[in-house]
């Protein structure tokens, strides 16, 4: 874990979206195509990729994790190592780019709770353990992420959620992380949710779970969540949305030095028009890199989705750093410049000495775009204040404030 958890310099990577067949490439796995894709990622000067096995293809039956699929995952990781790229593996896919990928043994005639059914949970544990164990001896294997935004299956707006309590979510996460650790002890294992964990009242996956379980806190920053609609492509709230989530997450962390991984961030059109994608990229990453404790940035995504594939939301087709024929786009060139500028540099941004206090009993919706807390933070950010976030119950705890370098605390009502 030391290699991943306490880097001297921030990490820069991409969520790997294969150019041929998208994530369906596992059905027709072609290692030469994978190598060509990874060559183009490495050419940007990035140091890691996050990869996505499709759960139904890797575990099509509850008691079968396909050995050949696992071999292909290891081959991908080895190809990445040859190009100087570390690998993080997301296990439970789960949900990707508006599509759900669930094995047949969890749906329709076999419908059972993803988070609570004893047989399903035991099978998930074995699947995650198997993937982790297969990669445990690879030096470039960072660790597992339990799954990609699996929390979307637990609550609205999913059309058919498996509803659970916060306690059940906690228990499930602990079991999944333990399975990853059993397969590959000491690696950088974590879990990752979409922003309902921070913004949606009553959501069963909680900020405390996100900021305390696993080796790091993962945040996924998408400004199509109402931020860019309210503030425009160049508003402080939009350009600093990723920084906001990084700082918001620290309010729930028990360890002031806990690393935060900006695991997804992108420039979604038309809210960020393609001609302004590089400008947004530069601003968003500059703001994120101004946050102490940032482990690294993983852009969504490596390559554009092919127009030969149907039914994706329009914005999904153009999110890549590279085109579908592996040419760098302006956003890709921007990330390459930033990664190059940070190579070999220590990440020691100034402390954020002014914090905005999240009031006692404040609902999570207050932290969402349009909420009183979010909008107050955005005002301060627009004024150049660099606000941290602290919960009201910790304002009277000098040791906690001191551990983060906080010397001034503002309330929402103080912000004009």
TrEMBL record:
Organism superkingdom: Bacteria
Any one GO molecular function term: hydrolase activity
Xref: SUPFAM superfamilies: (Trans)glycosidases
Keyword line: Hydrolase
Protein name: Glycosyl hydrolase
Upper classification of the organism: Bacteria, Bacillati, Actinomycetota, Actinomycetes, Kitasatosporales
């Amino acid at each position: 874990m030391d290699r991943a958890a306490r880097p001297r310099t921030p990490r820069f990577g991409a969520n790997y979206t294969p150019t041929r067949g998208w994530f369906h490439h596992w059905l027709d796995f072609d290692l030469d195509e994978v190598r060509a894709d990874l060559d183009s990622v490495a050419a940007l000067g990035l140091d890691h990729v996050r990869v996505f096995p499709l759960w139904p293809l890797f575990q099509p039956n509850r008691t079968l994790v396909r050995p050949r699929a696992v071999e292909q995952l290891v081959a991908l990781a080895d190809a990445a190592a040859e190009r100087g790229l570390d690998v993080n593996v997301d296990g439970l896919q789960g949900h990707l780019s508006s599509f759900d990928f669930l094995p047949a043994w969890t749906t329709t005639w076999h419908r059972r709770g993803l988070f609570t059914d004893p047989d399903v949970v035991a099978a998930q544990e074995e699947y995650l353990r198997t993937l982790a164990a297969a990669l445990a001896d690879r030096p470039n294997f960072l660790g597992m992420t339990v799954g990609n935004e699996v929390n979307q299956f637990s609550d609205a707006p999913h059309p058919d959620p498996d509803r659970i309590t916060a306690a059940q979510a906690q228990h499930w996460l602990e079991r999944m992380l333990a399975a990853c650790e059993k397969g590959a002890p000491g690696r950088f294992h974590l879990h990752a949710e979409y922003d309902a964990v921070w913004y949606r009242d009553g959501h069963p996956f909680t900020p405390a779970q996100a900021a305390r379980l696993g080796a790091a806190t993962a945040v996924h920053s998408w400004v199509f969540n109402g931020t860019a609609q309210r503030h425009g492509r160049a508003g402080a709230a939009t350009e600093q949305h990723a920084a906001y989530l990084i700082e918001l997450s620290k309010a729930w962390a028990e360890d002031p030095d806990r690393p935060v991984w900006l695991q997804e961030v992108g420039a979604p059109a038309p809210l960020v028009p393609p001609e302004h994608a590089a400008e947004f990229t530069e601003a968003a990453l500059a703001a994120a890199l101004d946050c102490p404790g940032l482990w690294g940035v993983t852009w969504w995504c490596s390559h554009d989705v092919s127009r030969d594939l149907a039914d994706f939301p329009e914005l999904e087709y153009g999110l890549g750093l590279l085109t579908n024929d592996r040419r760098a786009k302006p956003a890709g060139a921007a990330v390459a410049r930033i990664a190059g500028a940070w190579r070999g540099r220590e990440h020691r941004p100034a402390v954020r000495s002014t914090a905005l206090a999240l009031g006692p009993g404040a609902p999570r919706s207050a932290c969402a775009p349009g909420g009183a807390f979010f909008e107050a933070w955005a005002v301060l950010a627009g004024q150049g204040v660099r606000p941290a976030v602290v919960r009201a119950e910790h304002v009277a705890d000098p040791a906690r404030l001191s551990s983060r370098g906080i010397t001034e605390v503002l309330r929402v009502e103080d912000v004009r």
